[in-house]
Amino acid sequence: MIIETRAYARAGLLGNPSDGFFGKTISISVRNFGASISLYESPELHIEPQPQDLNTFRSIFHLRDSVNMLGYNGGIPLIKAGIKKFGDYCEENNIKLPNKNFTVRYRSSIPRQVGMSGSSAIIVALFRALMQFYKVEIPLEILPQLVMVTETEELGITAGLQDRVIQCYEGCVYMDFDKTMIQTQGHGRYERINPELLPKLYVAYNTNLSKVSGKVHNDVRARYDRGEQDVIDVLGQIAQKAEDGRTALLEGRSDDLHSLMNENFDLRCKIYNVPESNKKLINAARACGASAKFAGSGGTIIGIYKDDDMLNQLFVQLKKFNARVIRPFVV
User: Fold this and answer.
1) How far apart are CA 259 and CA 189, in angstroms?
2) Which residues are catalytic?
């Protein structure tokens, strides 16, 4: 029997990036793109490489372009790290696994280097497959933490809980990353919100990223850890946008998210260095009458549009900035 599992791209609706600072967020899963895992029993444990994992190239220029687009690692390190962390979890919780092996392969349609969390989607789908294969139950509220430490502890990837929470819970989720709760229980308060309450949303992502996106130099973490009040205040205001958005959605005032999303991004710009190319994309969307903010760390924006005419304007205007516009499929 072949086990097939899937996890989806995600977009931060409100509150990001306060999630990395014990804040609050609302996120949606974007089912237009996903990562899938196929797993079946075999004599030995085997990970099937995908084209991005291969080490044969047509020329030095082919290798260069491949590294620019995909980095130095494909999905194999993610799969290895996920399997190891799953085994660690089972051992730490006295779960005895049966003596059987498997072959696993992964595929992903999630655009790379635009902040849609393609790496964590692969790991979430992998954990789901391993849980089915070994008949192991991992509490849903704990799973995002396991996925995160797979990346942070095993691979040294900077990662937060927000992306993993929405990819594990799916749909639309309000998250309160209460510091005491995170530190004592390993998870925050996660509340599902009915996606039918959401306004008309668009997502636009850069299709012309020619290389792995470099980290824009920001010292927000260091300033936060030093206790700089300006940074703490702004992050608190960003978190409040998520709480206000939750209230608005539950009270049927989804139009309120228009200004909340714009304010979310404007607050971010007060403490983060945002590249001009990203600001131009935001401004172009707002010039059409839509709201616009980062869906993650950059490369993808999200906002509200009023009607089909405005959506068509977004298609035309954002294409000038090498951005593709989609309507996110949220279930």
Assistant:
1) 25
2) 163
